Amino acid sequence: DAGVTQSPTHLIKTRGQQVTLRCSPKSGHDTVSWYQQALGQGPQFIFQYYEEEERQRGNFPDRFSGHQFPNYSSELNVNALLLGDSALYLCASSAPRVLTFGAGSRLTVL
Amino acid sequence: ILNVEQSPQSLHVQEGDSTNFTCSFPSSNFYALHWYRWETAKSPEALFVMTLNGDEKKKGRISATLNTKEGYSYLYIKGSQPEDSATYLCAFMRDGNKLVFGAGTILRVKS
Fold first, then answer.
1. What pLDDT is stored for residue A1 in this prediction?
2. Are the C-beta atoms of B32 and A97 separated by less than 8 Å?
3. Among A2-6, A10-14, A96-100, B48-52, which is the least confidently predicted range?
4. Rounded Cα–Cα distance for residues B99 and B91 (Å)
5. pLDDT score at A32
6. Whether A87 contacts A107, CB under 8 Å
7. A53 Cβ partners below 8 Å, 6+ apart?
8. What pLDDT score does A16 carry?
9. Which of A33, A107, B23, B98 would give a disulfide with B73, using CB separation of 3.0 to 4.6 Å?
């Protein structure tokens, strides 16, 4: 059983550009959450999707948006990239209470 | 603002040493406390999900305890091995949906 898969694994963008990150949840999981991990910090909650709706959102600006598809896969979009958006972006899918994480997409903004 | 604090920030031990880390979290509106093990370039791996005050969980040489009234959890590793080298993250869950993570404890075990 493939766990949570994320793509791309690494990418480099320049300031002002837009990026889309993708996540396929673990089989049987219908809820997807996204986290941002900046250097030296723990992962920070961005938002969570369930039944194709954003269910909860962390303290991130509107430049961060997402989507969940009928097959439960999800995308994270970040517009107008800033240098400070450079981070590892983790996707997690969940059954109640237990989260399974992907290996992340590392975004570098130059 | 929810704060989850982990200590120490990093730890270097010799193979065979036993070690422990601390996670502090808000004691109000507790739902669950998660421990993850995270090796470089891999996915964070769930170790324990703890929900009840006084919970003790064990997985091989790793065990964890939980005190929800005072807001702390300990993770213990007995007889550390080089393959235990990783970052250990704890995360507090208040509502069943969102995890609030600590910054992690980096463990390095020398052979």
1. 58
2. yes
3. A96-100
4. 6
5. 96
6. yes
7. A68
8. 98
9. B23
Q: How far is CA A24 from CA A31, A68, A106, B43, B89, in A?
A: 11, 10, 16, 14, 23
- For residue B70, what is the DSSP state? T
Q: Which residues contact A44 (CB under 8 A, 6 or more apart)?
A: A35, A36, A37, A38, A58, A59, A60, B101
Question: Do A97 and B93 lie within an 8 Å CB cutoff?
Answer: yes
Cβ B101 vs Cβ B24: under 8 Å: no
Query: Is 80 exceeded by the pLDDT of residue B2?
Result: no
Q: What is the pLDDT of residue B97?
A: 78
Q: Which two tokens stand for residue B18?
A: 């036993």
Alpha-carbon distances, residue A60 vs A63, A95, B5, B75 (angstroms): 8, 24, 21, 31
Question: Hey, of B99, B100, B105, B106, which one would you mutate to test binding to chain A, going by the most A CBs within 10 A of its CB?
Answer: B99
User: Structure tokens of A61?
Assistant: 């600006």
CB A42 to CB B91 under 8 A?
yes
Query: What pLDDT score does B95 carry?
Result: 79
Sign of the dihedral defined by the CA atoms of residues B95, A24, A90, B6, in that order: positive
